[in-house]
Amino acid sequence: MLLIFSIFASSQVSDFQNINLQKADSIADFYHGESLTNLPLLSFKLTNDLTTPVEKFRSLHTWVCKNIENDYGFYLENKRHREFFQKDSIKLNDWNKSFQKRVFTKLLEDRQTICTGYAYLVMELANQAGIKCKIIDGYARTPSSNVKTLGIPNHSWNAVQLNEKWYLCDPTWSSGNIYPFGEVSKFVHQYNDGYFLCDPSFFIKNHFPLDTAWTLTGQFSVADFLNGPIVYNSAFRYGLYPTSPKSMQLKLTKNDSITFSFHTDEQIDANKIYFRLISGSHKITAVPEIITQDNGILILQHSFNKSGYSDLHIMIEDQVLITYTASVNRK
Predict the structure, then answer these.
(1) What does the alpha-carbon distance between residue 255 and residue 290 come to, in Å, rounded to a whole number?
(2) How far is CA 31 from CA 34, 44, 55, 99, 131, in A?
(3) Domain ranges of the chain
(4) Transglutaminase-like domain: which residues (predicted)?
(5) What fold, for 240-329?
(6) What pTM value is reported for the model?
(7) Quick check: helix, strand or coil at residue 90?
(8) What's the fold here for domain 2-227?
(9) pLDDT tens, 202-246?
(10) CA nearest 284: which of 306, 261, 256, 300?
């Protein structure tokens, strides 16, 4: 099993850096709004003029992300019922079966769904194109889910086999974001390429599968998943992945300095990164010192000159990428 994991760990989009995916994206855009009533035909249209498996999968994945809406109200309804029935396996199973039918009906009729529908549609279209693809069920980590302790399984994504290797992607979180508009929350399409064939060592930051073989890396535990910093979708959009500190909870003494290390996919302008420390209604913005930025590694340093407890958000352009907590003692 360890040998399998060591092979899987290198599976990421950079394996295909010599293949131009623009044609695949263009085809997906050309068929925007195409009907879901005939999935074999849709899969054919999206892949017929493409040569390599990765191009074909890219076209299918991009089309799903840009044509299907995430129904947040539907997600909340499912979440409430699953939490209510979690101690009654019979009622929970009955709910899952009845809700699953509604998920697929809503997907086909309204082009709206939740993670299960996204993952199903990607899998079905890929399989129609002769590409092996699976639905992976597990835990997604957000500020309100799976922090310190595991809740109930709350997310689904995909694994796809390309050139005899398995890769990971999340079409739901690639498709856009949920934003508050007054008293309601609405979905806004904002394609996020960071989850497409993502490096497993980064994907695991906020995805943990029920079957741990699908971590595609053997060096990450449930404890690592629960206790690490919270990594938001925006971190994947910018290509900024924390490597240390590994624990979300920072315990410090006043005037201590701490270094934060990151892997960067893109050449991020480190000067745009800032820290926002929030303690109750009190907010402080701080600019970290850049120690190193070279060869995909970024190291920042910050000194904690005040005691107390705060949430430490690592930000770019008013977007939170990563969150730690800092408990600073006087001495």
Answers:
(1) 18
(2) 6, 11, 15, 29, 20
(3) 2-227, 240-329
(4) 107-173
(5) Immunoglobulin-like (2.60.40)
(6) 0.89
(7) helix
(8) C8orf32 fold (3.10.620)
(9) 999 999 999 999 999 877 789 999 999 999 999 999 999 999 999
(10) 306
